[in-house]
Write the structure tokens for this entry.
Amino acid sequence: MARQELLTEAQRKAFYELPEHISDRDAIRYYTLSDEELKIIRQQRGAANRLGFAIQIAYLRFPGRPLASGEKIPEYLVQVIANQIGIIPSAIHNYAKGRDETRREHLSKIRKEFYFRSFTIQEYRELAQWLLPTALGTDKGYLLVEALIIEMRKRKIILPAMYAVEHLAWAVRERAQRRTFKQLVQGLSPHQERQLNQLLYVSQPGKQSDLSWLRQSPGVVSIKNFHELMDRLEYIQRLDLPLDNGREIHQNRLLQMAREGSRYSTQHLSRFHTLKRHATLMAFLIHIYAFLTDQGLHMSEKLIGRIFNRGEKIHKESFQKDGKAINEKVRLYAMVGKALIEAKEENLD
């Protein structure tokens, strides 16, 4: 069976090998030995064995795998560990030249004393169950493998070969994708499935597909663009699709699929297998319907505001135009009022 590869060779090396350099912060984080570890280390005979035993503990912590036979150990790691156990770093050369059986015996003892586990079918199932929620949120292979390796280190599960980790991440990703696809197309009738397929096809020569039409930008605020936006919303409503199927799907994953539906060509989408094609189109329609609704509300507010502003401007211009006549009437009313007051004071009619 062909390997399911999610990583580049450089990415595999970064996960599985020790870096050439490490920060002081990471050295403390990964390689500070506990009192219990120091106690077991001191029980080993000879400086070389104590240093080699301690370095094997360090390897199982980070990167999370055993020290390989004949492997060159970075100088910084030797220095960090040697300083903690009070042994000169050069003692490691005698350990490297020693029996390979000693290295294996040390590894066995470390696993027993500090509860490190091998990657068996039980661990595979545990990790697959644990990774599924993450895979429902993203299908990025690198992120899934990274999450797995971090969790394996936490659980003291010794890393197997990288292809085994990649296979696990790939299998969980496939499972998550199928679940997401099925959720998006749940309840679709054969007629609705045909409607989704029709989005990809051009009905008349020289025209565009309905999907391309739906993808168009709403444009600037105008009555014409508002009506065109409403036409697209009404078109989606007439499809009568279960757009609430996206409620139970992780929003990051839904948005990722919607972007695929808006970016890929109709020819590309038509080559997807049926379940994936319908699910991708559903994700796109769910997203674009919400987007067009928001844009429609925004555009309507702007248009209504323009109408009020226009009415206010007309009223202002009219007021300025008739201002002279209004002022004359005000002066007339003032003169009449003054005359009435004077007549009252003089008891005149």
